Input
Amino acid sequence: MTTIALEAPSVAPTSGTCCAPLVREAADPEAAADLARSFKALGDPTRVRLLSIVAAHDGGEACVCDLTEPVGLSQPTVSHHLKILVDAGLLAREQRGKWAYYSVVPGSLDRLGALLSEAAR
Amino acid sequence: MTTIALEAPSVAPTSGTCCAPLVREAADPEAAADLARSFKALGDPTRVRLLSIVAAHDGGEACVCDLTEPVGLSQPTVSHHLKILVDAGLLAREQRGKWAYYSVVPGSLDRLGALLSEAAR
DNA sequence: GCAATACATCGAAGTTCTTCGATCTGATAC
DNA sequence: GTATCAGATCGAAGAACTTCGATGTATTGC
Output
């Protein structure tokens, strides 16, 4: 029998749930919703690119003005996507002066990846 | 500098791309779209639950009739979600008699998880 | 104080997604 | 053959998402 314990994100700052089963018996709806929220944040090409660009940027951080041109979208749209990534716990935002610096939350992608790999066993 | 090579899914049956960078320099749009497609399939609570239930089911497979009641949705809706999971390369479909049996594609979740974990380094 | 810059927030328009009932396709059984 | 059952496919209705220009909010600089 496939007994796979997939932890809930805990990636999301607001998420209190932890260690909920994904593929144990029948993944309770709440844990499934938590997981889906995290994956939905990665389910848009623009957001994957933003994550990528931020991670590859000097110092591992970038401000909005660094990001609008590479993805070819307006500033409000980029801000919107960044907010979604922050809410998902994948990016961190730090205001310094009039700039907002975004960086990848250490371990956040790793944690999501571990959930999937663990689920596959 | 954060130099993260994130391979393209290759999880999707139709996907020909492989070994595209996610967070190397600025994730090319095509690779980002490929990745986003895979994650979008996991970006819905119902689909996470379906995946979970299938994996936890006896023999690691289940037919549609086993799935409608647990998720509390109509048969067309469940079929629709299953198709999305199959298209994403996460589930396999096998017709036996008048039943269609769905099972988790071995290694598919693992592969996605590895992409994320690798991207986190 | 005022002007300018960086960014967030606010509608609104267009698109996509989720869901359903109704219908169609195959396979089994008679 | 016909009836029945499992499941896919087909619109359609409603919700959610993506995107934008316009506006609001801080912060810097004069």
